[in-house]
Design goal:
The protein has helices at about 5-15, 40-55, 65-75, 110-115, 165-180; strands at about 60-65, 80-85, 100-105, 120, 125-130, 135, 155-160, 165, 185-190, 195, 200-205, 210-215. The protein is of the alpha/beta class and about 220 residues long. It has a single domain (about 35-215), classed as Rossmann fold, CATH 3.40.50.10420. The protein has a six-stranded parallel sheet, with helices on both faces. It has a four-stranded mixed sheet with strand order 8-5-6-9. The chain has a two-stranded antiparallel ribbon with strand order 10-11. It comes from Rubrobacter radiotolerans.
């Protein structure tokens, strides 16, 4: 028996007592889990920063007025010379000390261009404090999925007001993007990593080897 056949056989055995006429909507699902965090927002942001750092990402704090300088410093410290940006990245966030490669729907960069770039700079849709996760939804300032998958370094800007406490809060906020606009949703928890057959951690396999996050206060 193949693995596929074995899995399907287990499913059939587990559902053998379900009437053929029964549909998923006929059975009530208990949803007693928390859907809202009761923590103060400042505490939620602190938790987000701590959990992002737990995933081996580098976290910085900055005000809106300090953001442009902080971006420049991060890029200088990483020796970034060529930087991919979404075509609609806010002008105030664009660094001019490096070569900027704009990616847009009319003139998308090739996979080779993305792979050869030193890094990518984007905004995000949400940050989830509970899991230290950054969410991208292909919205303004984020670009398409490929630009945050191929470069080896991702510098991501997260505004404090974008941080929510719990995963259910994030799902509720993303519902319209998915169901009405059909946007792809990407969850990022630290740099891309996996383990080889000997359980040795290997980074940069499915995405950026290095994730750096700037959490911005002040609107």
């Amino acid at each position: 028996m193949s693995a596929r056949e074995e899995v399907l056989a287990r499913i059939r055995r587990a559902t053998s007592d379900v009437p053929d006429s029964e549909r998923p909507g006929d059975v009530a699902v208990e949803r007693a889990y928390r859907t809202q965090s009761d923590a103060a927002h400042g505490e939620t942001v602190e938790t987000f920063c701590e959990n992002v750092a737990e995933y081996r990402a580098t976290v910085h704090r900055a005000t809106t007025a300090e953001l442009a300088k902080k971006i420049e410093v991060c890029l200088e410290e990483r020796a970034v010379r060529t930087l991919v940006i979404p075509h609609d990245l806010p002008e105030a966030m664009i660094p001019w000390s490096v070569e900027v490669l704009r990616d847009g729907p009319k003139e998308p960069l090739s996979n080779a261009d993305l792979d050869e770039a030193d890094g990518v700079l984007t905004g995000c849709a949400l940050g989830i404090a509970q899991t230290g996760t950054i969410v991208l939804d292909a919205g303004a300032g984020q670009g398409r999925r490929a630009i945050t998958l191929l470069p080896d370094y991702h510098l991501c800007v997260v505004k404090e007001e974008q941080v929510v406490g719990l995963l259910p809060e994030a799902i509720a906020k993303l519902r319209h993007d998915v169901t009405e606009e059909g946007r792809p949703i990407t969850f990022i928890s630290g740099p891309s990593a996996t383990s080889d057959i000997e359980l040795e951690r290997v980074e940069g396999v499915h995405g950026p080897r290095t994730l750096e996050v700037i959490v911005v206060s002040g609107g």
